[in-house]
Amino acid sequence: MTSKFSIRSQFDLLHEQLSLFCEELQQSDIIKSTYFELPKIEKEQEEKAPLTIEVNKVSGQEATKMIVSAYKDLFIDHKVSGKVVQRHPGIISINDPKGNLQARLKAVNEAKQKFKELILEIPNNDARFDAVHSAVPSLITIAGYRKIHSETAIPYSVRFTWMTKHATRTLSKEAALDMLSRSSNYSNPRMIDQQSWQSLVEQEKIRVNSLGANSKLRIRRPTRVSPEVNVRFTAQKRYHVSAALPFILFNPHPETKLGDLSNYEKVDNHPRKRAYNFLVDRIYLEKVD
């Protein structure tokens, strides 16, 4: 059983390793620092996905300070959103020939992973939230989980892009009908009256009910756009990771091409955009073929 003491103890270990890492990073041989500052997300903006995001590029010593602050950004600022966690894209190139800082980073990421595993042992979301915030008040749980990504090889390029992902959940026909039945009792401010709302839900239930008993369904909900790091070695060998925290390039090669994060602007008619035919548009419910 996960106890308050075990959560606090693991967090204290995580925080200690992170503090040591940040101290050692500032004393290391830093070749280049770039931080891409994103706007703070105010509470009144947290329910609305942005159509544009302006990026402020910061370089040099100021960028290093902001990168260190980003790694330490674990607690809620009550002036900004607590639901949408701030992203901190950036890149810092560091000479670390003996691998000391790499070893410290490994310890940090291991402590983060163990903290995450400890929290996820609690099965219920509400119980998990209560346990974490009782043990570590004001902690942004996902910020504690976030891995600090790095590369030790020599890539051809490290660039940034914006990525729109989807939160996916599969469910049975029965589970979907149960969800719709429960939602018919909710009030919906967009509808003229409760009767109209219930009529809409009944139409949704009829569409789902028309499917075969063994039909597989999926909720594929788009999430807020987020920055990513694209690391390329060759046309075939490449990977991408989250840019929620600044990326570290160890022992950089002078010919590795480093890119910037451009401003984001939503494009409705993107050539690669897939058209979806949802069974229930408002909850992004679709049939899995």
Helix content range: 25-40%
Count the beta strands.
Answer: 14
Structural class category:
alpha+beta
Instruction: Give the H and E element order.
Output: HEEEHEHHHEEEHHEEEEEEE
Distance between the termini: 40 Å
Give average pLDDT, whole number: 87
**What is the CATH fold-level name of the largest domain?**
Replication Terminator Protein (Tus), Chain A, domain 1
GO biological process, one term: DNA replication termination
Keywords: Cytoplasm, DNA replication, DNA-binding
GO molecular function, one term: DNA binding
Pfam families: Ter (PF05472)
Q: How would you describe what is shown here?
A:
With 289 residues, the chain is an alpha+beta fold. It folds into two domains: 187 residues, 3-Layer(bba) Sandwich (Replication Terminator Protein (Tus), Chain A, domain 1); 80 residues, 2-Layer Sandwich (Replication Terminator Protein, Chain A, domain 2), CATH 3.30.54.10. InterPro entries: DNA_replication_term_site-bd (IPR008865), Tus_dom1 (IPR036381), Tus_sf (IPR036384).
Supply the key terms.
single chain; 289 residues; alpha+beta; Replication Terminator Protein (Tus), Chain A, domain 1; Replication Terminator Protein, Chain A, domain 2; 2 domains; five-stranded mixed β-sheet; four-stranded mixed β-sheet; globular; DNA_replication_term_site-bd; DNA binding; Tus_dom1; DNA-binding
What would a concise description of this structure say?
The protein has helices spanning 4-26, 60-71, 100-120, 125-135, 141-145, 173-183, 194-209; strands at 29-37, 52-53, 56-59, 90-95, 150-151, 157-163, 166-172, 216-222, 226-232, 238-242, 247-250, 257-258, 264-265, 285-287. It has 289 residues and is α+β, with helices and mostly antiparallel strands. The chain has a 5-stranded mixed beta sheet, with helices on one face.
